[in-house]
Amino acid sequence: MTLGEKLSKLRKENNYTQEQLAQVLGVSRQAISKWESNITYPETDKLIRISELFHCSLDYLLKETEDAYNRNQYNEGSPFFGKRLRERKSEKTVWGMPLWHVGRNARGFVAVGFNACGVIAVGFRAQGLVSLGLLSIGILSLGLLSLGLLSFGLFALGILSAGSISLGVFSAGSISFGIISLGAIAIGDFSVGALAIGKYFALGDNARAMIALGDSEAAGSVFQKMGEFSAQDIVTVKQSLDTIVPTYLSWAKEIIKLIL
């Protein structure tokens, strides 16, 4: 089997048109056509890029035999996906982006790959409006290390963040840092947790803030209360919040008032 025949076979197996492959390789469609017809041959850097794109060895491409062993050896899968991830994509595109793309470096409205970027992205490293991966970035992000407006993961960073260790405007986790923070260990402007450390307000078993409400320990510079608190205590806390909390955190103050 010639280089041109192998290139044509690989391209079709992975659902690339000649135009799409040309765009990826930075050449013209006519160049792809000539390669597949064995009229001309790709330069060395293009051959390397083709081998990376289709996960095959240079030996497989250059030897005029179909050496399945070399090809499959190069294509051993990553631990993340288990088996070899076969490159394929939708022929339909919108604004030049395929509707779906599965591959090591996937780019599409739905992208699945080691490196995935799309509206919905799933991969080891995922970037998208909705992303799922070990390293995940998106509007809605789920992953071991997660960054997004809504972020969930072992380590989570976002506007609304939840994780073992989380950082966000609204943060919940075993250890959490945020303007409003909830967790076993909660640190923030307004904190609720077993150990709650807040700037303005803390509620928990052990509470430390300007206003501290604790079950077993409370340390507050403006108001502190241990154990159950009365209706009058709630009134006092709300009045104190109105006094000490700056205007730009009024929205957070009102949320805390709702939970009292």
Q: How would you sum up this structure in a few lines?
A:
By secondary structure, this protein is an alpha+beta fold. It has helices spanning 3-13, 18-25, 29-36, 44-54, 58-62, 68-74, 231-244, 250-259, and strands spanning 88-89, 93-94, 97-98, 100-102, 105-226.
Would you spell out the secondary-structure blueprint of this structure?
Elements: H1 3-13, H2 18-25, H3 29-36, H4 44-54, H5 58-62, H6 68-74, E1 88-89, E2 93-94, E3 97-98, E4 100-102, E5 105-226, H7 231-244, H8 250-259
Helix pairs in contact: 2-3
Please tag this protein with its features.
260 residues, two-stranded antiparallel sheet, 5 strands, 28% helix, rod-shaped
What does this structure look like?
The protein has eight helices and five strands; from the N terminus they run H-H-H-H-H-H-E-E-E-E-E-H-H. The chain has helices at residues 3-13, 18-25, 29-36, 44-54, 58-62, 68-74, 231-244, 250-259, and strands at residues 88-89, 93-94, 97-98, 100-102, 105-226. The strands form two sheets. A three-stranded mixed beta sheet has the order 1-4-5, with helices on one face. A hairpin with a 2-residue loop joins strand 2 (93-94) and strand 3 (97-98). The radius of gyration is 28 Å and the shape is rod-shaped. Mean pLDDT is 86; it is low at 68-84.
